[in-house]
Write a structure and sequence with these properties.
Elements lengths: L1 H13 L13 H30 L2 H30 L3
């Protein structure tokens, strides 16, 4: 969740202030955002994989928390696109 929040903060506060060379299709801020996005995707994938393994082989109480983790990862993945666009519009 911290990486998710940092990515939104980066898009709203840091991205607009970073220099992009004239006539360049992308700048350093785009590259940073690209790698942050892949990092978030990797963390969500590892979390869901671990949660599914716990659901299959874990104890009853652990299965409840693992199910919650799967739901949280799904909510983060589905809400990132709209929140990212909102952060871009509300940049300061």
């Amino acid at each position: 969740m911290a990486l998710f929040a940092f990515m939104l903060l980066f898009r709203a506060a840091i991205y607009p202030r970073m220099y992009i060379e004239p006539d360049s299709p992308y700048g350093l801020s785009d590259v940073i955002e690209y790698f942050l996005g892949w990092g978030l995707l990797a963390l969500l994938s590892v979390s869901v994989t671990a949660a599914v393994a716990i659901i299959i082989w874990g104890h009853r109480q652990s299965k409840k928390w693992a199910g919650g983790l799967v739901v949280l990862c799904a909510v983060l993945a589905l809400s990132f696109g709209p929140l990212h666009s909102l952060a871009a519009r509300w940049s300061f």
